[in-house]
Amino acid sequence: MINIVLFGKPGAGKGTQAEFLKEKYNLTHISTGDVFRFNLKNDTDLGKQARVYMDAGDLVPDELTTKMLIDEVNKHPDTNGILFDGYPRTISQAEALDAFLESIGSKVDATVALEADDEILIQRLLERGKTSGRIDDQDEDKIRNRYQEYNEKTAPLMGYYNEQGKFYAVNGIGTIQEITERLSTVIDNL
């Protein structure tokens, strides 16, 4: 079983690359956004709890996010591995993920960050926003705010995983195929 955490700022190509990587390595792709949408849409107990925070304009606490993620992982007991997309986002989430994986005899094998210049990513998101319908991709100020949150909360995870020898940075600029090849080189050498 191989477990990979895929990092990158919004627009870095995590979702696109996750599709290729899950097929190539027969991994289960778990996107935090998809997990949240499922729980909210299906009005699960966890979704109801999350909605209270979201309706108040607050971030969903790490503990609740982690519960949703663990529920999702437990739905795939026979997987070859998991590709985590959008989780963990904080040190406390990373510690909770490590503890959970250890409890099932597993671990995070690698964290891979797709790196790209902010200005290039902003243009990508603004382009995506023209067709995606995502409001948060249509406003440059909102995009920059998301990057600020990433820098404050998620970027410290790079140090956390680097200390464990599990952090890899990959150039996120180029063709989809070039980026997939760079990611594959990292994964093939684990």
TrEMBL record:
It is an enzyme of class 2 (transferase). One of its GO terms (biological process) is AMP salvage. This is Adenylate kinase. GO terms for cellular component: cytoplasm. Consists of three domains, a large central CORE domain and two small peripheral domains, NMPbind and LID, which undergo movements during catalysis. The LID domain closes over the site of phosphoryl transfer upon ATP binding. Assembling and dissambling the active center during each catalytic cycle provides an effective means to prevent ATP hydrolysis. Pathway: Purine metabolism; AMP biosynthesis via salvage pathway; AMP from ADP: step 1/1. It comes from Flavobacterium frigoris (strain PS1). Keywords: ATP-binding, Cytoplasm, Kinase, Nucleotide biosynthesis, Nucleotide-binding, Transferase. The lineage of its organism: Bacteria, Pseudomonadati, Bacteroidota, Flavobacteriia, Flavobacteriales. It catalyses: AMP + ATP = 2 ADP. AMP binds at residues 32, 37, 58-60, 86-89, 93, 134, 146. SUPFAM superfamilies: P-loop containing nucleoside triphosphate hydrolases (SSF52540). Pfam families: ADK (PF00406). ATP binds at residues 11-16, 128, 174. Catalyzes the reversible transfer of the terminal phosphate group between ATP and AMP. Plays an important role in cellular energy homeostasis and in adenine nucleotide metabolism. It comes from the Bacteria. It is found in: Cytoplasm. InterPro entries: Adenylat/UMP-CMP_kin (IPR000850), Adenylat_kinase_CS (IPR033690), P-loop_NTPase (IPR027417). One of its GO terms (molecular function) is AMP kinase activity. Its main location: cytoplasm. Residues 31-60 are annotated as: NMP. NCBIfam families: PRK00279.1-3 (NF001381), PRK14527.1 (NF011100), PRK14531.1 (NF011104), PRK14532.1 (NF011105). Belongs to the adenylate kinase family. Monomer.
